[in-house]
Write a structure and sequence with these properties.
Layout lengths: L2 H14 L28 H15 L9 H14 L6 H13 L11 H24 L5
Helix pairs in contact: 2-3, 3-4, 4-5
């Protein structure tokens, strides 16, 4: 475990008034220490620190909380926007791939393209549900 991750978790939990020993992360380290991702959106602590101030400002809260669903969803949107998810489905797909692997979905390294493809399939399905609700006023499911 890196000291950076430990320091990040300690800063985050301190700002939220949480006990780092009792705050769930995806990969607690036996014998002491913290690592892994936090909350429903599974942000790595150092990544959370890049976006937490913007998330707090967007939500009008003093401190963003990666374990609170509203904050985590907003953080995902902020993070994806920072990675280029603006203006087109191609940009959204590439941002999803960057979220997953740090790289765009491209022909050179297609191993990460499955993630962008899956995200976009889900996004289209959600949009189809929204469109159906708007047209018929009831769920199609």
């Amino acid at each position: 475990m890196s000291r950076l991750v430990t320091a990040s978790i300690l800063r985050i939990t301190s700002a939220l008034g949480l006990d780092p020993e009792k705050t769930p992360v995806s990969c607690p380290i036996a014998g002491g220490g913290w690592g892994g991702a936090m909350g429903p959106a599974q942000f790595i602590p150092s990544t959370w620190e890049i976006i937490d101030n913007e998330v707090a400002a967007d939500l009008g809260v003093p401190v963003a909380n990666p374990w609170r669903a509203q904050d985590a969803i907003m953080a995902s949107a902020v993070y994806l926007k920072q990675r280029g998810a603006v203006g087109s489905e191609t940009n959204e797909r590439n941002a999803a791939c960057r979220y997953y692997s740090g790289r765009s979905c491209d022909g050179k390294k297609p191993a990460n393209s499955f993630y962008g493809n899956n995200v976009m399939a889900i996004a289209r399905s959600v949009q189809d549900d929204i469109d159906y609700l708007k047209q018929y006023g009831v769920s199609r499911r």
